[in-house]
Amino acid sequence: MMNKPSRTGVAHVFDAYRYSLKGLRAAWQHEVAFRQEIALASLLLPLALWLGTNASERALLIGSVVIVIIVELLNSAIEAIVDRISTELHPLSGQAKDLGSAAVMLSMLLCLSCWAMIAVQRFL
Asked: Per residue in 6-48, pLDDT tens?
C-alpha cells in the first residue's frame, strides 16, 4: 500500500485545521449527545470562572468539561467506523461501542467529581 501524499509546513497546519472544523461540524449535525454536551458546556464554562477561586480550580473545572467533549468526539468516531464496516450485529462491534460509551461515562464522572469537590470546598 502506498502512502498518501500530504502537504507539509503551514499548508499542513491549515489542512488539519480545516479537517478539524469539518469534524466538529459533522458532530454537531449528526450527534445529539455532542449537541447536549456543548449546550451544557456553554453554561458550565462561564460558571467555572465564577466558581473557581484560583487558576488551578478554574483549569480543573474547564478542563474536565472539555475532556467530556473530547471523549464524546472519540466515541462518535468509533461508532462511525464500526457502522462503516458493517451494520450487522456482531459482538465485537457492540463491544467497541460499549467501550466508547464507558469512556464517555467515566469522563462525565470525572467532570462531576471535579465540580462537586470544588463546589463543596467553596460553599461548605
From this structure: 788 899 999 999 999 999 999 999 999 999 999 999 999 999 9
Catalytic residue among 64, 72, 108, 115: 72
Using DSSP's 3-state secondary structure scheme, residue 17 falls into helix
32-123: CATH topology is Helix Hairpins (1.10.287)
Residue 72 bears catalytic tag: yes
Is position 17 annotated in a ligand binding site? no
Contacting residues for 7 by C-beta, under 8 A, at least 6 apart: 15
90 is an annotated ligand-binding site residue? yes
Does 98 count as an annotated binding residue?
A: yes
